[in-house]
Write a structure and sequence with these properties.
single chain; alpha/beta; 4-stranded mixed sheet; disordered N terminus
Length: about 550
């Protein structure tokens, strides 16, 4: 999530007149100050985390040593929205909750603490970190309470990494001589050409052109969201937002998106689309990727990453994937890097039944401190990084494990486990020693690429995958942030209709893609009539009001 933000004090590039200390400043105090008696907080997150080690990883142990806090964590399995609904009506809440866009259910159940006074009295690092963006933490224009500390976007974040787009295995583009991959036709041609020459792998198994994932909510990531990226729109969830009027349109109604789904229908018709795309489960999808047979994906790396990491661990570096900004035609630009400004919203809350709210906010404040952020991002000095001439560096052997043995490394170290649990700065921000707070900065990113990736970069004349994509400064900053990040009142008609439309869309889109091409238009027209009958216009009108209210709240 891209952000264009002000440089709050203690944030960007404070070199201290060329005299950096090896230890970052802790701001005005951390959770390590005061009471460090052991305490266990229950925690629920609406994201899965299959590699969670119950804080027995190296960073988790260090956090517990410094704060006395251990988390008894539960991560989403199945439908997180349903789970949050059950939590909301139970009256018995986890101490800490990360409910993403379902936080409204908890607010309406009166389950969450207003954190305003706790921040003011006990959280100097949190207060310093958010700076003038504290006003974006307000729940709504009618309720100025702070129920959530945003953790899914880093303050002052600079987006250096392309993590989505259309993916192709490196072996495909290498064999084809690094062809231009700019439109869906280019992408199709590459898959077709490679498969004609290489119908099977070295084990005699059939190679697969393009595989999609439609398992429950993941259909949005791999199947439906790419429809707006390929047709020149940014990610606003299920809506297209008019940048002048802030009017919301159910994005599937856009005529150009119909043509994207027509292309997927064509891909199925000519045999380049995996016929199991709409029936395979997530673990089957990951296993298929790990087998090396899948040449192309349309996905985000955080979703398919476990499969790719398995390929790298097996030494199949040329079977991993590059990222390409594919659109329906060259008249469109991929908006992956359009800035949302600081994207407050998704984050962590403290419940009203929390056993010790002061200890909880101090724990989160430690994680928000420079010391806490360096620990969670870099790891332990001498083990995961070294300091040479005042500069933090990742040793070559550690870097190799992070690249090629990522699953085992993350389980052992805990790096990456705690980012969305706490407020934090984004990529590109430097601490009080002049070092970057995260390890995602240009030099380290380049150092993190393996030899095969560098070979592909040379073939395309680039240094990173981002170089292929339209730049952030080619687009205006979105004053509403991201529409998917806007919380809708739980009992709103907007939600009621949205659920109906979700069921319709998740059925009709696969049906249209898998149909005889001669029937595509009739099926699409039927789909449009069905969503119109279900109340799509009423939903759009209701969401338009929410978007316009967000713009007013954030930009007043």
């Amino acid at each position: 999530m891209a952000t264009t933000l002000f440089a709050c004090s203690g944030g960007n590039s404070t070199e201290n007149a060329g005299k950096p200390s090896n230890k970052p400043s802790n701001g005005e105090g951390t959770a390590a100050d005061g009471n460090q008696d052991p305490v266990t907080f229950s925690y629920y997150a609406s994201d899965p985390n299959p590699n969670w080690m119950k804080m027995q990883d190296e960073i988790g142990k260090a956090i517990t040593e410094k704060t006395g806090v251990t988390l008894n964590a539960e991560f989403a399995v199945g439908d997180p929205a349903q789970k949050v609904s059950l939590i909301a009506v139970s009256g018995k809440y986890p101490d800490l909750i990360s409910a993403k866009n379902d936080v409204n259910k908890l607010v309406e159940a009166n389950a969450l603490l207003d954190l305003t006074d706790l921040i003011e009295q006990h959280a100097p690092n949190i207060k310093k970190l958010y700076g003038k963006y504290m006003k974006r933490l307000r729940y709504s224009d009618t309720d100025s309470s702070i129920y959530v500390l945003p953790t899914y976007a880093g303050v002052d974040h600079q987006q250096f990494i392309a993590s989505g787009g259309f993916e192709l295995q490196h072996r495909v583009v290498k064999e084809l001589g690094y062809p231009k991959i700019r439109t869906v036709q280019d992408y199709e041609n590459a898959l077709k050409s490679y498969l004609e020459k290489n119908p099977t792998n070295d084990r005699g198994e059939k190679n697969i052109g393009l595989s999609l994932l439609a398992d429950d909510w993941r259909i949005q990531i791999s199947v439906t969201n790419p429809a707006f990226y390929t047709t020149g729109a940014p990610d606003d969830g299920e809506y297209y937002i008019d940048p002048k009027t802030y009017e919301a349109t159910y994005h599937f109604k856009r005529p150009e998106e119909k043509e994207y789904f027509r292309w997927l229908n064509h891909m199925h018709d000519i045999g380049l689309l995996d016929p199991e795309s709409f029936v395979q489960k997530y673990d089957q999808y990951i296993a298929k990727i790990a087998s090396g047979r899948v040449l192309g994906l349309i996905d985000q790396d955080w979703e398919y990453g476990d499969g790719e990491r398995s390929l790298k661990a097996d030494g199949k570096l040329d079977h991993a994937y590059g990222h390409y900004p594919v659109t329906l035609s060259e008249e469109y630009k991929d908006h992956s890097f359009q800035s949302t400004g600081y994207l407050a919203g998704y984050g962590i809350a403290i419940s009203k039944t929390c056993k010790d709210p002061v200890r909880a906010i101090k724990f989160l404040d430690f994680l928000a401190s420079e010391e806490g952020q360096v620990l969670t991002n870099w790891g332990i000095e001498g083990k995961h990084y070294v300091v040479e001439d005042g500069i933090r560096k990742v040793p070559a052997d550690v870097n190799d494990r992070k690249i090629n043995d990522a699953i085992n490394f993350s389980k052992e170290s805990g790096i990456g486990f705690y980012t969305t649990m706490s407020p934090h700065y984004g990529d590109g921000v430097k601490d009080s020693t002049g070092n970057y707070i995260t390890t995602n900065f240009p030099e380290q990113i380049v150092a993190g690429y393996n030899d095969i990736e560098k070979e592909v970069f040379q073939g395309y004349g680039i240094s990173t995958w981002k170089d292929l994509f339209p730049k952030e400064d080619e687009f205006p900053v979105k004053p509403w942030g991201a529409a998917w990040n806007i919380s809708v009142p739980a009992n709103s008609q907007v939600n009621v209709i949205a659920e109906k439309l979700k069921d319709i869309t998740w059925k009709r889109i696969p049906e249209a893609i898998l149909a005889d091409p001669a029937k595509f238009d009739a099926l699409w027209d039927s789909y449009m009539k069905e969503i119109d009958k279900a109340g799509v216009k009423e939903m759009e009108e209701g969401y338009t009001k929410l978007v316009q209210a967000r713009v007013k709240l954030w930009n007043e």
